[in-house]
């Protein structure tokens, strides 16, 4: 069974940075584009970023554009989300997702002073 496992969340002060990782246990990882979503309590799930199979194109939500960077390493079967200049409104559970496979359990990101 293919698994997606996120890590790297935590508590950070406003304007701080975090890097999330998503390890995918599928040798066909390079065949899939990947999404990062987030969901805050009481809010709908939000697509934060997407990266293509080869990692040569990406998109970002307006709310994170210029602050977040998505990348991937197809040798390590890992995707990353680098988050800079974090704001309290970035507080959420962050998930990596491959539509054809599923999503991980998520990692909590809390931005607070």
Protein described:
This protein is mainly β and 113 residues long. It has strands spanning 4-7, 10-12, 18-24, 34-39, 46-51, 58-60, 68-73, 78-83, 92-98, 102-103, 107-111. The strands form 2 sheets. Strands 2, 4, 5, 6, 9, 10 and 11 form a 7-stranded mixed β-sheet that branches. Strands 1-3-8-7 form a 4-stranded antiparallel β-sheet, with no helix packed on it. The radius of gyration is 13 Å and the shape is globular. The mean pLDDT is 96.
SSE blueprint:
Elements: E1 4-7, E2 10-12, E3 18-24, E4 34-39, E5 46-51, E6 58-60, E7 68-73, E8 78-83, E9 92-98, E10 102-103, E11 107-111
Parallel strand pairs: 2-11
Antiparallel strand pairs: 1-3, 3-8, 4-5, 4-9, 5-6, 7-8, 9-10, 9-11
